[in-house]
Design brief:
This protein is α+β, with helices and mostly antiparallel strands and 135 residues long. The protein has 3 helices and 6 strands, in the order H-H-E-E-H-E-E-E-E.
Length: 135
């Protein structure tokens, strides 16, 4: 299992307190890639025992937001999600959801980020494309 970057995790939790409530951990955070992890837990699931889609979308949004923040153009002070598209491929019923985000486009006004969420067995759980407004 990959090690948690405690400093980056605390930064994420400070900037986005909801990520602390969910238990999201940062594994890697560079301008090239941001990787995070969310552990499966029964209280985050649907009736069928699958990690709730909203929890997965929150994981992707936070990961993509951090990636966008690390790629701000000159003069940018932050970002805000203005569009998000999610495709779900399979349920996550145990283990961890690991999200990996990379930029597709960095402009002066918007940043587009693609995030893959994978299970511990490396199978693709979801793919999210989001547009972040540069503030």
């Amino acid at each position: 299992m990959r090690a948690v970057d405690e400093q980056a995790t605390e930064l994420m939790h400070s900037a986005m307190p909801f990520t602390r409530e969910l238990g999201i951990e940062v594994l890697e955070s560079t301008t090239s890639v941001v990787s995070t992890r969310l552990a499966w837990a029964a209280e985050k699931c649907t009736a069928a025992g699958a990690l709730h889609g909203g929890a997965l979308m929150a994981l992707a949004d936070a990961t993509g937001g951090m990636c966008a923040l690390l790629n701000l153009p000159d003069g940018g002070t932050g970002t805000s999600t203005i569009e998000s598209k999610t495709n779900f491929f399979r349920p996550l019923t145990s283990g961890n959801a690991t999200a990996t985000a990379q930029t597709l486009h960095v402009g002066r006004r918007t940043i587009v980020v693609e995030t893959e969420i994978r299970a511990d067995n490396d199978k693709l759980v979801a793919k999210v494309t989001q547009t972040q407004a540069v503030l």
